[in-house]
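Escalated from tier 1: flavin-adenine dinucleotide holo job.
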Amino acid sequence: MKAHCNTSLKPFHTFGLDVHAKEIIAAQSTEDFLAFWRDDAYKMLPKLIVGEGSNLLFCQDFEGLVVLNRLKGISVSETDTHWHLHVAGGENWHELVRWTVEQNMPGLENLALIPGLVGSAPIQNIGAYGVELNDRCEYVDVLHLDTGNIQRLSAHECAFGYRDSIFKQSLKNGYVIVAVGLQLAKAWEPVLGYGALSDLAMQNVVCAQAIFNKVCEIRRAKLPDPYLLGNAGSFFKNPVVVASLGNKIKEEYPDMPAYPAGDHQMKLAAGWLIEKAGLKGHKLGGAAVHDKQALVLINAGNASAQDVVQLAKHVVETVYQSFGVELEHEVRFIGATEETSLEAICLR
Ligand code: FAD
Ligand code: EPU
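Tier 2 regenerated the structure:
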């Protein structure tokens, strides 16, 4: 186990805000995690597990212990039909994707360049370019911090949904994801249905490396590199609305992107709504709506947490006034002692 003397959270989250924790510790084994939870010195402190902090907004200083997941190791086995990967939670997601493609174990290429760790990937069921984690996930191993038991949840038990899983619902606290099992079919089929991959769909033969390269190229063109410009990816989820509301907006804006989402529902593109509401590039203090992808809020330079919170509030209110659509933030808001939300902060 390794303690960080400096308690600045700046290097440990991708928004790059100047916030602090009481203490920051790296856990390199499941024993480390249990030790921190049982140590008298930390017993009374609030605790937060952090991967790479790429889906977090620290709304103020965290008055507790931040535990960085640094569990490492990958093992592979195979059957006639699949490769089965058992990956420790502290491995970097993108490096895993790159490595599997290089090893001719395709299947994860559409999920290239998503920041963060493997152990965080099931929490919001990461997804991009037509593939979600749940399409490749076999199981998730969780360490229960009160008992020390490790429980294996099947993908079905994880209750994956769009940016959702059991880990955002009933299994939100008191556990750590220590490993993820992935299964990659040897009979590989490219997934090219997402509009931006249509160039590749025209070609007769497509390999996983070409999809990996294309996804990286598109993402680099649109999304700000968090090491250069602080951000946490899409700040809001794409909203699912009743079809009557979606159709009403579409009558006025026939070019609006919209996708069927179950019975009498439609999924809309939050980035499009924010742009059409006139907010692309909008600045508030040091925070701004990204000028290439309006769904991303950025730290344009020395933003305070309050700047980002106020900008998020302004975006939600303006989109609601313009279209009657309520946006819900995807980014996890962290308060002084526990998770909070934009709604909770604004009601205070
Ligand atoms: P963190 O931000 O550190 O943690 C996220 C949450 O999980 C926190 O609540 C934390 O307490 C909890 N947590 C972390 N690890 C564990 C653990 N082992 N056990 C229990 N709880 C834990 N997401 C997508 O789905 N698709 C995208 O295309 C995408 N693109 C992005 C692009 C950019 C530029 C950025 C900055 C982010 C993007 N994201 C995307 C969001 C982000 O990459 C994912 O949510 C990622 O899985 C977060 O991983 P992390 O390790 O940084 O998690
Ligand atoms: N759009 C605009 N203006 C914008 C942004 C988008 O008009 O400023 C339009 C696009 O033209 C397109 C539609 O909105 O018609 C969708 O845009 P895009 O393909 O860029 O995807 P997105 O819906 O903005 C989602 C995910 C991303 C994921 C991409 C690719 C969510 C909340 N976001 O973004 O995930 O990488 O699709 O699959 O579902 C993340 O979760 O952090 C993330 C980056």
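Residues 14, 48-56, 69, 89, 114-117, 119-121, 123-124, 126-128, 176-177, 223, 226, 231-233, 332 surround flavin-adenine dinucleotide (ligand 1) (CB under 6 Å).
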